[in-house]
Amino acid sequence: MYDLVSVIVPIYNAEKTLELCVESIINQTYRKLEIILVNDGSLDNSLNICNSYKKVDRRIIVINQINKGEGAARNAGLEVCSGKYVTFLDSDDELPSNSIATLTENFDCQLVIGGLKKRTKKSEKIYYPYPKKVKGKIEISNVITDPKYIYFINCIASKLFLNDVIITNKLQFTRKKYGADTHFIYSYLKCINDVKFIDSIVYIVNSVENSISNRIVVDSWKEMVELYELGVEVINNECKKSKYLLLLRSIKTSLFLEYKISYSSFKKTCNLINQYLLQNNLNKLKREGNKYDNYIYFMITHKLYIFIYAILIFRNYIRK
What we know:
- The structure is a single chain.
- The chain is of the alpha/beta class.
- Helices cover 44% and strands 18% of the residues.
- The chain folds into 2 domains: 5-212, Spore Coat Polysaccharide Biosynthesis Protein SpsA, Chain A (Alpha-Beta Complex); 216-319, no CATH class.
- Helix 1 (18-26) links the parallel strand 1 (5-11) and strand 2 (33-40).
């Protein structure tokens, strides 16, 4: 017997990609689906496209709301979904035809995470997590800071969630400028005891120009602190190295987002980070990361901000 899977798609001005997205759900080999299309105040033809699909496929539910943002659109989908399992798909992305079947076949835990394919105009890249079943809080603590898994942990794509966990713990997406996916996933991880990673492609990301790597985010440190502190709640108290690595990830992400604006903005963020480290006795931790992480931590705690700024500019230059 097949269990119902709810697929939630937040939509805003997606008329150019929406048909490909919806078709990829409709054509899944796994048929017992509830397809929830949430039109978040689109100004183009997105709502009409949603309604036209609803007429030909009874599995489709269309929600139309004023523009509130992607997180609010996903929350609207969560409010009405009735599936045993829940997965999320962005309106400019798509699913391989066997995606849901693969995820459900491997669901002998509380969260399944698969691989994904990332498409740009020039290339395609495939990202597989190392196959692993993680049990217990200590192992989950280690995974969320493991370089092999960080990419998969911090994005909402390629995952199958248990709806009971979401409902029981009243989990929702925030309206953060950055990190809303990570916030939801960390909140979910706090409530469970096992995760399974599979080396199958279950999601296709079609990269667009306004991705976070190309977006300027101002005053990011406050949001990074919230994510770090939520992550610490997930991490077992015994895992001091994991806490250090999580802290470094939050620092590096904030610096990466801020250095694009100006040096004065970057320096202001560095001072906020340093102040936070001092206030929370985090300025003299044992350095347990790689050399680059440890250098960043040393330079922040010794106020060598101009050197960090130069490193980020140089790294960005050689990657172009």
